[in-house]
């Protein structure tokens, strides 16, 4: 079945990209895993990857008819410093496909070789970080969190030099768009306001189709970007996800979780947790994520000031606090099983978080064991205070039930903990067990349901997987 390519990004002026094809990889690459659901979504037959020749499309040996591959240019604030030129340094947009749902999807390879935007890099990606991204995109999606996803992962068999020599890989990413805040910054700081407007129009026309007003169009659009970002970060916080590198070039204009690097899920509840070992100041710590998201939106407001007067842009971003709070309170109320937040419910989860912090409780498991009193209590040192908390909780449950509000706490039992990622990586790299990717994905496909088979993964890092060093190196 031919894919229905319609590469709308290539209709933008040539200053937005460099048209090129990927480096040819000849070192006997092989497919590690693929996602049948995404194959179906973009119109690939399930048997597509049965044929080894199919890999050729992703390793520079063949091109899909109608595709139009290119590397995008963008810029960004990295750890607060403006870098005037970044871009797809190791990624290529093979083309955009009209999916079975009528939406456009980027078909993007990451780790595909050098591009004009590679700077000092080698254009490659290591197997380790590719496995992390491949699985985590899916884990987030199943948790109901907007994210890029991946069609497949290919082991390239090419060595990649990092702190050590490592095996390389390519992942094939699928997302409605990989456009970042940094795309706008690139043109703004070059005083190329015409292209800022062209890109804004492109994004609105194709991805914010609900915005129909002509008068207030850009402001409405920016309000929605701000709202989507606030919702995304609220969901990250609620599930205990820490991105690790919230630079503006890693912020999706569509509010997707984008560019998985040194991310992590909270184990011990510690709001100051820094998941990225390269983040020495803790700029991107778990608790800083909302304020950093807002900082990034301010950076975007600056980059959009040629289409939105700055005072209006800043006003929009100032509303982030309210939007985030609303969304986060909603998420936290749901974790306790309440439909709508109120002051008592807010106090209740705030108190719980304080107790969890004192007890170094496991964030995921404490919420997951909420309704099983004896198990729940094992997560606390001060049993008396925890029991008191349960008492208050039960009182509120009864009140809510009396008001006819249904009660279904929604908490994942399984998240993609760093130790699980590490165990998977070790098994694949050492060729011990390639089936582990399927196993972990099966578990993470139903994160909210208890699965006896996978209970070993509902746990803090066992001793052998403790003190992992997860850095920017990828
Ligand atoms: P990241 O930290 O992965 O979000 O990447 C930041 C920038 O560096 C982006 O422009 C990437 O394309 C680029 N980059 C990261 N790693 C490499 C690499 N190995 N080769 C070339 N460019 C890279
Ligand atoms: Mg990036």
Short characterization:
This protein has 474 residues and is an alpha+beta fold.
Please characterize this protein's 3D structure.
The chain has 474 residues and is of the alpha+beta class. Among the domains are: 9-177, no CATH class; 338-402. The protein contains 14 helices and 11 strands. It has helices at 36-42, 127-142, 181-188, 193-207, 217-239, 289-303, 310-318, 320-336, 343-359, 363-368, 373-377, 383-402, 418-429, 436-445, and strands spanning 17-19, 30-34, 70-78, 81-87, 91-98, 104-110, 125-126, 149-161, 165-175, 241-242, 264-265. The strands form 3 sheets. Strands 2, 5, 6, 7, 8 and 9 form a 6-stranded antiparallel beta sheet that branches. A hairpin with a 5-residue loop joins strand 5 and strand 6. The chain is globular and about 65 Å long. The mean pLDDT is 96. Bound molecules: adenosine monophosphate and magnesium ion. Residues 249-250, 259 line the site of magnesium ion.
């Amino acid at each position: 079945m031919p894919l229905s390519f319609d590469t709308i990004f290539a209709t933008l002026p040539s200053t937005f990209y460099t048209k090129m094809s990927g480096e040819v990889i000849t070192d006997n690459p092989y497919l590690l895993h693929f996602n049948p659901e995404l194959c179906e979504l973009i119109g690939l037959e399930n048997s597509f990857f049965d044929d080894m020749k199919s890999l050729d499309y992703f390793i520079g040996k063949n091109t899909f008819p109608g595709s139009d591959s290119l590397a995008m240019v963008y810029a960004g604030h990295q750890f607060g410093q403006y870098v005037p030129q970044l871009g797809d340094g190791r990624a290529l947009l093979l083309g955009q496909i009209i999916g079975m749902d009528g939406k456009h999807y980027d078909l993007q390879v990451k780790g595909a070789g050098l591009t004009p935007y590679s700077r000092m890099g080698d254009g490659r990606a290591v197997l380790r970080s590719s496995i992390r991204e491949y699985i985590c995109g899916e884990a987030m999606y199943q948790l109901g969190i907007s994210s890029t996803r991946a069609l497949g992962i290919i082991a390239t068999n090419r060595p990649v030099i990092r702190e050590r020599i490592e095996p390389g890989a390519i992942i094939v990413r699928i997302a409605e768009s990989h456009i970042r805040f940094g795309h706008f910054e690139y043109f703004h700081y070059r005083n190329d306001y015409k292209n800022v407007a062209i890109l804004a129009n492109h994004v609105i026309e194709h991805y914010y189709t609900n915005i129909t007003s002509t008068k207030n169009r850009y402001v409405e659009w920016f309000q929605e970007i701000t709202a989507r970002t606030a919702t995304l970060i609220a969901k990250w916080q609620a599930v205990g996800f820490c991105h690790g590198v919230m630079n503006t070039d890693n912020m999706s204009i569509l509010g997707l979780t984008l560019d998985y690097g040194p991310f992590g899920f909270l184990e011990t509840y510690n709001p100051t947790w820094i998941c990225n070992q390269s983040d020495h100041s803790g700029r991107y710590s778990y608790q800083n994520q909302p304020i950093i998201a807002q900082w990034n939106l301010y950076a975007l407001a600056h980059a959009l000031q040629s289409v939105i007067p700055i005072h209006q842009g800043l006003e929009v971003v100032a509303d982030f606090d309210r939007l985030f709070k609303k969304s986060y309170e909603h998420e936290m109320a749901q974790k306790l099983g309440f439909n709508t937040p109120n002051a008592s419910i807010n106090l209740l989860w705030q108190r719980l978080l304080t107790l969890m912090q004192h007890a170094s409780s496991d964030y995921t498991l404490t919420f997951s064991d909420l309704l099983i009193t004896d198990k729940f209590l094992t997560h606390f040192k001060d049993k008396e205070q925890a029991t008191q908390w349960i008492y208050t909780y039960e009182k509120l449950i009864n009140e809510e039930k009396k008001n006819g509000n249904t009660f279904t706490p929604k908490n994942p039992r399984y998240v993609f903990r760093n130790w699980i990622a590490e165990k998977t990586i070790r098994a694949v790299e050492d060729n011990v067990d390639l089936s582990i990717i399927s196993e972990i994905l099966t578990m993470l496909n139903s994160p909210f349901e208890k699965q006896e088979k996978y209970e070993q993964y509902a746990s803090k890092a066992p001793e052998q997987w403790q003190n992992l060093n997860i850095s920017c190196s990828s």
